[in-house]
Amino acid sequence: MPAECPESGPVGPQDTSPGPRRHYGTWISGQCTSPATPTPWSLPRWRAYMAAAVLCYVNLLNYMNWFIIAGMLLDIQKFFQISDSNAGLLQTVFIGCLLLSAPIFGYLGDRHSRKATLSFGIFLWSVAGLSSSFISPKYSWLFFLSRGVVGTGTASYSTIAPTILGDLFTRDQRTCVLAIFYIFIPVGSGLGYVLGSTVTELTGNWRWALRIMPCLEAVALVLLILLVPDPPRGAAEKQGEVTVETPRGSWCEDVRYLGRNWSFVWSTLGVTFMAFVTGALGFWVPKFLSEARIVHGSQQPCFREPCSNQDSLIFGILTVVTGVIGVILGAEAARRFKKVNPRAEPLICTSSLLAAAPCLYLALVLAPTTLPASYVFLALGELLLSCNWAVVADILLSVVVPRCQGTAEALQITVGHVLGDAGSPYLTGLVSSALRARRPDTYLQRFLSLQQSVLCCAFAIVLGGGCFLLTALHLERDQAKAQAQAQQPGTGTPAPPTHTGPRTLDSRDLDGKDVETQGWLAGVSASAEAP
Q1: Residues near 183 by beta carbon (within 8 Å), at least 6 away in sequence
Q2: With 90 as the cut, is the pLDDT of residue 159 above it?
Q3: How high does pLDDT run on average in the chain?
Q4: Phi, psi of 83 (to 5 degrees)
Q5: In DSSP terms, which residues pair with 32 in a beta bridge?
Q6: CA distance 249 to 404
Q7: What's the CATH class of domain 45-232+251-483?
Q8: Which pTM was predicted?
């Protein structure tokens, strides 16, 4: 018969210290359990990797939805008769709805079933995307509305999926898995351009691209329901141990905690500048390159659909290739250099963004002179930008306690989008239209107007590098705080030890303590062991 143990009290079945015993349980794998205590949580490695593969596949579809419209933008503009400024508003509506709903999904993801929330989000964006392909050109406002609903659905995934991966893997494994997960941001974005432009070219109707996506998303929904678990929060660090859900505070308490976490604040601002640049470039560069070809005389202007989407296809392939290489390089550099320098992750983000700025500037400036050189510098700029995706996610997961990670992801997404790519496509199109209104109506002036409006991206990315440099100054302190708080769920600082009998101290007693406290504890331990 298993030995009985107290549900609460000193550690170890051999403990004989005096005191009342209110509840008794049994010892299982060194853990005292009772009918009111959860059983140890564990997951086979193959299940974790299978779940990660499914989440990566859904992330691919998620980002294909972000940029599939940009891949056939010329056709959509002709179909609905919309200007550059209103075309940019398509992406603004999409991201605006995403950022408004992200805090809601972050709140739900920290308190309720993350798997159910993800399933609802995938279903929502699939239905909205399919419906948008049947809208008449007389009701263009409905197309804008459907893009907003798609953005609402994708908010659930962008907010919650990284926290599930963070609870399935630890340390270097988590870094590698997050790197693979974030590879699908540029890969999905690039394939969105490729799918939109290719299907339009083959069928002569851009709407078929929006009808293919729901079929792929239905498969993703089934795989998610069958293969992805819903691990307890913080479970990765407690594989095989009894895992108890952390007591929940209010949402306002979580926000106040994150507002005092300077590594989170500065890295979020860095992500915001990255989002501003990638949003503007991702939406307008295919059209920018197409107009550059018209200026060079190698392509005729488009007067009726279907328009040539050659540059959307090239830009999509370029985004896929540079994205895969960039994410792998960034994650591998972070994995290697943080063993030497604990601040390696934000420093890698800083250096890559500062190097990307001149590349993007040269890509835009050289386009009217030589397109091949423009493509080379554009590829370098995209590669350097892609180095940061997995690294930024790892920074967040390392400086925020598990109970707040869903809210942290939601706030970072919200701030990044509301100040970043929610407005940058619209602002870029608005500036382009304003410049064009003051100039002669020629193809050269149209191109120069768009070029000058996009140039601000090269300067915005420098500000992002500065934010990550400030992140590096606070990183170690905030990581130590997060680790200490994670060891004492539901409190801001480790609780003082309660002694009900003599026992030998171990390394767990020293976590989160300063040097003076460690020395005092060592003296107490020596006194307790003395004859």
Answers
A1: 56, 323, 324, 327, 328, 389, 390
A2: no
A3: 77
A4: -85, 180
A5: 27
A6: 10
A7: mainly alpha
A8: 0.64
